[in-house]
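Below is the data:
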Amino acid sequence: MSYTYFAATLPALQFDGEPAMTESEFQDRCRDHLSASDFAALCSLVSGGESSNTFVRKWHEHDTQLRNAVARMRAARIGEGIDASKWLQNHAGFEVSTETAVTAAFQEPNPMRREMAIERIRWNIAGELAGFDSFSAEAIFAYAIRLGILCRRAAADVDKGTERLRGMMKAKAAAEA
């Protein structure tokens, strides 16, 4: 289904920019413009729920592979015999490009830049899954994913993150003592 008018009214999103609206505002707008089945698929996409929608299933498969690759890289980075298998989830398909991109992201020594590189991978996957029709339901779904990325980044709190890191470092030091 084509959503020419609705898609044309959505503000452009840029990876390094601010979110154009909240996720809740976007979902409210979608409720008014998407078909019932597309809105249900969007809700499943956002919540991580099951869906028969092809885009949603593909997104979950790609995101699961990405999360698995990140878990393996983090376990390898920690070392000390950490086994990532308890965090890995089954998924269909395998994209070599995702594994390669995650490996490249983990070459970044700065943790914040590393996380940004991982979010960039998600951003790009969403765009690939959207295809070439900017007015399709898939384009709206990709917009939801990208908006979610921007909203998570905007909600990040440096002070809370720093405090959490200090707590983890203290706990590790206490365990080693």
Notes: The two ends are 61 Å apart (CA to CA). The helical segments are 4-9, 23-33, 36-47, 54-78, 96-105, 111-130, 137-155, 158-176.
